[in-house]
Write a structure and sequence with these properties.
Elements lengths: L1 H17 L12 H15 L3 H18 L4 H9 L5 H9 L5 H21 L6 H18 L22 H4 L1 H21 L4 H16 L10 E9 L4 H8 L3 H15 L9 E3 L11 H6 L6 H10 L2 E9 L11 E10 L5 E8 L16 H5 L17 E2 L5 E6 L6 H9 L7 E6 L9 H16 L3 E5 L5 E3 L15 E9 L6 H5 L2 H20 L8 H6 L1
Parallel strand pairs: 1-2, 2-3, 7-8, 8-9
Antiparallel strand pairs: 1-11, 3-4, 4-5, 6-7, 9-10
C-alpha cells in the first residue's frame, strides 16, 4: 500500500507538470489542480513530520521527472558537474522544486503541535475554513521565494485570450480559484460534502473571463522595426570566446555580423542581441564619461544598417580585478548615433535579480568568503538602477534579463520607478544552459503573464530560442525555432500602454475581493443559521 501511495504522489507531481508546456505533449490547465489534490489528500492525513516530508518529496519528484527534467543538464552545462552526479544533484534539488510546499510541511507540523490555540480564532464551519485555506495557500505560493515560479494559476494561460480578469487581479486570482476547487474536491472525497459556493462561482468565473477577453491593438499609432538576432552560440563556443580564444571570438563575431547585416525590406530601427551575447567585457563608466566610440564590431554593424543596437554583455564594475567576485555586471547595453553620427554607448541596465548558484550565492555576507571555495560559478554584482531606454524616434522601453521577467512584483516595482511609461519590455535571455528540453517553452509561457498583467508587449530575445514578441492579449508574433541560427524581423506597433489595475495596485484588488467573499459568506451563514426552538420545560419554568 505504501508503494501505491508514493506512486500516486509521483503521478500527482506529473499531473502538476502537465499543466505547463512539455515537448510533444498538449497541456491541460486543470491538471495541476488534480495533481495537487492527490498531494494534499495524503499530506493532510500524515501523522509525522517525516511522513509529510516524504509525501512532499515524491510529489516534487513527479514534477521533476516530467516537467523539470532539464535540471541535470543545467548542472552539467552551468556547473561542470558530470554524469551521474548531475542527476544525483537533480534528485536532491527535488527538495526545493516547490519551496512553498516545503514551508507548508513545516507549518503543518507546527500547527499539529499548537493547533488548539489557533483553532479558537477560526470559525468551525468547514466551508468557511476551505475559503480561508484557499486564501492562505494562494498567499503562501505567491510570496514564498523561488527561482522558477510555476504556480497553479499560471496553467490558465492556455485559455488566453479568455483571461479578462488577469489585468485586474494577476495570476493569484487563478491560483485562488484553483485552490478553492481542489479543496472542494478534497472535502467531497473525505466527507462527501458538496461545497455549493465554488460549484456556483467557478463556472461564473470561467464565463466572466471569456466574456471580457483580453485585447491588444496591433496597429497602434507608433511602430518600431526590430531585428532579433538569434546566433545560436553553443556553450563551449560561448565560454572559450569569453576567455579570449581567437578562433572562438572570430566565430562569434562572424555569426552576429552576418545575421545583423542581412538585407531587410524595410529600414531596421533597433537590432537586438540576447543576454551576454558580446563576449568581451566593456567598461560603461569610462565609455559614457568620455563618449568613446562603440566597439569596432558594433560600429561596423551600425554603419552598415543605420540602426541602433541593444545587446547583452558584461560590464566591468571596476578596472581593478579582484579575483572573480562581483567584478562584472550582467548588462544590457544601448548604442546609438551621436550628433556627429558616431556609434556610441547611450545607456545601460545592470541585472538586479541574480540566479542563486548560477550568478551568485544566496548566503548574504558569507557569499564572498564562500566564493573562494565554490569557484565554478559566476559572481556578478547586482545592479541598483531601473533604466528607461529611448530610441532616436522616441520609442521607450525597459530591459529585464533572463528570469527577472518571471517576478511580477519586481517588474511592477521597475515600472513604478521610471520617469515615463515604456512602450514595451525587452527580455534578454540565454536558455542554452537547459539543452533541447521543455525549459525554453516553459520560460516563454510564464513570461507571457507579465504582458497580460501589465498590459505591455514583451520582446523576448534569446540565444538559442525561443525569440518572439508576447502581446498583452496572450497572442504572439512569429517565433524562432529552438537551436536555430536565424534573424527575425518584426514590426511592433505601439500604442499608449494600458495602465492596468494590477500594475497600479498589485494584490490590493484581490484582498478586497477576498474581504467581500468573507463578508458575504458570514452574512449568508448568519441568515441561514438554524433557529433554536425553546424546549417545553423552558416554558413551564418561565
Amino acid at each position: 500500500m505504501k508503494l501505491i501511495k508514493y506512486l500516486l504522489l509521483v503521478v500527482g507531481g506529473m499531473l502538476y507538470a502537465w499543466g505547463f508546456p512539455i515537448k510533444g505533449i498538449p497541456s491541460f490547465f486543470l491538471a495541476p489542480v488534480f495533481g495537487t489534490t492527490i498531494f494534499l489528500f495524503y499530506l493532510f492525513k500524515a501523522k509525522t513530520f517525516g511522513k509529510r516530508f516524504l509525501i512532499m518529496y515524491f510529489f516534487n519528484l513527479g514534477i521533476y521527472l516530467l516537467g523539470y527534467y532539464w535540471i541535470p543538464h543545467t548542472f552539467s552545462e552551468f556547473g561542470n558537474i558530470p554524469f551521474p552526479f548531475n542527476h544525483a544533484l537533480g534528485l536532491v534539488f527535488c527538495l526545493i522544486i516547490s519551496p512553498h510546499y516545503l514551508l507548508l510541511v513545516i507549518l503543518i507540523t507546527l500547527y499539529k503541535r499548537h493547533g488548539g490555540k489557533i483553532d479558537r480564532y477560526i470559525p468551525r464551519d468547514f466551508g468557511f475554513r476551505v475559503l480561508l485555506l484557499s486564501i492562505f495557500f494562494t498567499l503562501l505560493e505567491y510570496f514564498t521565494p523561488t527561482q522558477f515560479p510555476a504556480h497553479l494559476g499560471h496553467a490558465w494561460m492556455q485559455l488566453a485570450p479568455g483571461l479578462g480578469l488577469a489585468p485586474v487581479f494577476g495570476v493569484p486570482i487563478f491560483s485562488f480559484m484553483s485552490f478553492w476547487m481542489l479543496f472542494a474536491i478534497l472535502d467531497f472525497l473525505d466527507k462527501k460534502r458538496i461545497n455549493r459556493p465554488i460549484i456556483i462561482l467557478f463556472p461564473i468565473f470561467l464565463v466572466i473571463n471569456q466574456l471580457i477577453p483580453l485585447q491588444f491593438n496591433q496597429k497602434g499609432t507608433k511602430k518600431i522595426h526590430l531585428r532579433l538576432v538569434q546566433a545560436n552560440i553553443g556553450n563551449f563556443l560561448k565560454i572559450t570566446s569569453e576567455k579570449g580564444e581567437k578562433n572562438s571570438l572570430e566565430n562569434v563575431y562572424k555569426k552576429y555580423f552576418h545575421l545583423s547585416t542581412m538585407p531587410s525590406k524595410k529600414p531596421i530601427d533597433l537590432i537586438i542581441w540576447p543576454e551576454t551575447a558580446y563576449p568581451i567585457s566593456l567598461f560603461s563608466k569610462y565609455s559614457l564619461k568620455y563618449e568613446k566610440p562603440a566597439p569596432r564590431l558594433i560600429s561596423e554593424i551600425m554603419a552598415i544598417t543605420g540602426s541602433e543596437m541593444l545587446i547583452g554583455g558584461y560590464d566591468m564594475n571596476s578596472p581593478r580585478r579582484n579575483g572573480n567576485f562581483e567584478m562584472e555586471y550582467n548588462t544590457a547595453f544601448h548604442f546609438h548615433f551621436s550628433d556627429d553620427g558616431i556609434p556610441q554607448m547611450k545607456e545601460t541596465y545592470h541585472k538586479m535579480k541574480l540566479i542563486p548558484f548560477g550568478e551568485t550565492l544566496p548566503f548574504g555576507f558569507l557569499t564572498k568568503p564562500m566564493s573562494k571555495i565554490i569557484n565554478n560559478i559566476s559572481y556578478f554584482k547586482s545592479g541598483q538602477k531601473f533604466t528607461l531606454f529611448e530610441t532616436k524616434n522616441k520609442i521607450r522601453f525597459t530591459a529585464a534579463i533572463c528570469y527577472e521577467i518571471l517576478f511580477p512584483e519586481f517588474i511592477r516595482m521597475y515600472l513604478a520607478n521610471l520617469s515615463h511609461e515604456p512602450h514595451f519590455i525587452m527580455n534578454l535571455t540565454n536558455d542554452s544552459w537547459y539543452g533541447d528540453t521543455s525549459e525554453p517553452y516553459q520560460h516563454l509561457f510564464l513570461a507571457k503573464w507579465r504582458a497580460l498583467e501589465l498590459g505591455i508587449p514583451i520582446v523576448r530575445m534569446t540565444n538559442t530560442g525561443i525569440s518572439s514578441i508576447l502581446y498583452p492579449d496572450g497572442s504572439e508574433s512569429a517565433r524562432t525555432g529552438i537551436y536555430t541560427e536565424e534573424k527575425l524581423d518584426v514590426e511592433l506597433y505601439l500604442d499608449k500602454t494600458a495602465n492596468t489595475t494590477f500594475k497600479k495596485w498589485g494584490l490590493i484588488p484581490l484582498y478586497l475581493f477576498w474581504m467581500l467573499l468573507i463578508a458575504g459568506y458570514l452574512i449568508y451563514q448568519k441568515r441561514h443559521r438554524p433557529v433554536k426552538i425553546p424546549h417545553a420545560k423552558d416554558h413551564e419554568a418561565g
